[in-house]
Amino acid sequence: MAAVVFLKKFCRINLSKICQNKSLYLKPRQSQCRTFRVNAALLQQPFDSADEKPQFPGASAEFVDSLEFIQPNVISGIPVYRVMDRQGQIINPAEDPKLPKEEVLNFYKKMTLLNTMDRILYESQRQGRISFYMTNYGEEGTHIGSAAALKPTDLVFGQYREAGVLLYRGFPLDLFMAQCYANADDLGKGRQMPVHYGSKEHNFVTISSPLATQIPQAAGAAYALKRENADHAVICYFGEGAASEGDAHAGFNFAATLECPVIFFCRNNGYAISTPTNEQYRGDGIAARGPGYGMMSIRVDGNDVFAVYNATKEARRRATAENQPFLIEAMTYRIGHHSTSDDSSAYRSVDEVNYWDKQDHPISRLRQHMVSRGWWDEEQEKAWRKQSRKRVMEAFEQAERRLKPSPDLMFTDVYHEMPPNLHRQREDMWRHVKQHREQYPLEQYDK
After folding, report:
1. Ordered per-residue pLDDT tens for the chain, 447 residues
2. How many whole angstroms separate alpha carbon 191 and alpha carbon 247?
3. Long-range contacts of 168-176 (CB under 8 A, 24+ apart)
4. How far apart are CA 131 and CA 193, in angstroms?
């Protein structure tokens, strides 16, 4: 009972002190609220109670006196921006990026080198040499066109099918192979499954398997760059299937309301694994969602490397100059299986795949453009194909010969100083390995 009486007296005394000094506690908060309200008022129309216009703060609109629901097809469809036709001819000379010959040749060589690497690593997985792989067939234009429009200092958040972006930035074939083989040269020290690349040197954030987690992360990174007043942008790649995740909503909304310099780049390749777009959404694709979040949006032909380049370059310029997010939907087609764990023949026809492979491929479109300008011919094609395959095979063979990372690396890089429980676990592991030496080929592992 005495304790209860004491507690009541204590609370009364401290409450009175807080009240006496309330100005010390409330003034900063009141000041913050006042600043917020002033800033918010600047973004809204002046309030006039006599005006018959809606005064609701959540939307700008007019009153109507007829009941009508807005149809989902209120517009006929967002157009697809392109620069070249399917034969590689420039449609509107004003939209030609007028890139020098050397840069266009670099586009083509990077796209075809990626294609060659894909074929060799895909076959490597089928032969049991690596555990998993994902090809980029048919989407090379989205990678190279967007990567070329960025600055090397811009931060990249990928999903898992953007190897071309990293290749364009100078990530060597040796390290692509090292990551897929999880050998001692792997920057990730063998801890990730294949195609989960990352490079601090190339400002490419390491891929993570959970779908769409990179979208809100990209918004946060862009907000940090904005706070630093850095002339950098963030680009975030994802597929149309990932756009159905809740993380996409969170990332889009944060980026718009916080006015972040980020480019959301959607590769709409027709399928989210086996789910076609007509089962993935009912609206007009992904670009149509941008205005609902208050984002500038555009839809481009992802098989036209120049269209992708132009759109990304302008989005990057405006994102950094105006501190606002942009949404690019690149329409393309995934020619390969979703991954080596997928058989796409179960849900789409061979004729469908052949059309995109033979009639509307980003590599063949760019090649036709170069040939028409006298920049490329059949002899150059044969020589480059032979040279690129040799380069990939050399990196492939070197990766196979390298040792695996040291087993000790399983216990590092989590804590600055290894705690006692991890020390015990490492000792237990080595004790087990020595006891069953015949089961563990340690000669294949780095010391």
Report:
1. 444 444 444 444 444 443 444 333 333 333 333 333 333 434 555 555 556 788 888 877 889 999 999 888 777 799 999 999 999 999 999 999 999 999 999 999 999 999 999 999 999 999 999 999 999 999 999 999 999 999 999 999 999 999 999 999 999 999 999 999 999 999 999 999 999 999 999 999 999 999 999 999 999 999 999 999 989 999 999 999 999 999 999 999 999 999 999 999 999 999 999 999 999 999 999 999 999 999 999 999 999 999 999 999 999 999 999 999 999 999 999 999 999 999 999 999 999 999 999 999 999 999 999 999 999 999 999 999 999 999 999 999 999 999 999 999 999 999 999 999 999 999 999 999 999 999 999 999 998
2. 25
3. 168/110, 168/143, 168/144, 169/199, 169/202, 169/203, 169/204, 170/202, 171/197, 171/199, 171/202, 171/204, 172/395, 173/113, 173/117, 173/391, 173/392, 173/395, 174/395, 174/398, 174/399, 175/199, 176/117, 176/395
4. 8
Q: How far is the CA of 424 from the CAs of 408, 421, 431, in angstroms?
A: 12, 5, 10
| Closest CA relative to residue 248, chosen from 197, 205, 211 | 211
Q: Is 155 helix (H, G, I), strand (E, B) or coil?
A: strand
Q: Identify the CA nearest to 234 among candidates 316, 314, 291, 118.
A: 316
Length of the chain: 447
The helix-helix angle for 140-148 and 305-322 (nearest 10°) equals 40
**314-349 CB burial, b ≥16 within 10 A, e <16:** ebbebbbeebbbbbbbbbbbbbbbbbbeeebeeeee
At residue 189's C-alpha, the angle toward residues 185 and 192, to 5°, is 120
Amino acid at residue number 88:
G
Residue 447 token pair: 């010391």
Scan for tokens 């310099």, then name that residue.
261
Helix, coil or strand: residue 57:
coil
Residue 442 in tokens: 């340690």
Token digits of residue 282: 């009912």
- φ, ψ for residue 434 (rounded to 5)? -65, -35
Catalytic residues: 123, 209, 338-339
pTM over 0.85: yes
Sign of the C-alpha dihedral computed for residues 205, 321, 303 and 255 taken in this order: positive
Instruction: Using alpha carbons, list the distances in angstroms from residue 154 to 76, 87, 241, 306, 407.
Output: 35, 33, 25, 20, 35
Sign, CA dihedral 71-76-81-87, equals positive
